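### Sample
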Amino acid sequence: MSLLCLAGGGTVTKLAVAAFTLTWMHTIEKIPWEEDWHLSGKELVVDEVRIKGTGAGMEPAPDARLEDGFYRWTPKDNTRTEIILRRSDAPNVGDWNFCTEGQCRTLGTIVPETADPVRLYPCD
């Protein structure tokens, strides 16, 4: 199991995870977006992206397939050294959800609710 650091609001939280899912509601379209990630050494790798519809800034990739109501695809450029999450104060959007091993919790239960941005990266 690898360590994932979540840094924001002056805190760093380390979580022992092999894989995780980020979910959120698009601020304008109010459509769910989900991404499955895993840690690989000093990189974060996105395995699949899912969106429940299309709209402003939510175009699925050309190779996306529609399954169970979601457009699904794996980005061609699927590795990152970090993920920067920004928070929105838009109404009816809510916080990011961080899911691992079948359990989800809001980002605000891991780092301060006022933390913006929040940085995710493999811990040393």
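The first strand starts at residue 2 and ends at 8. This sample (DUF1850 domain-containing protein) is used throughout the tutorial notebook.
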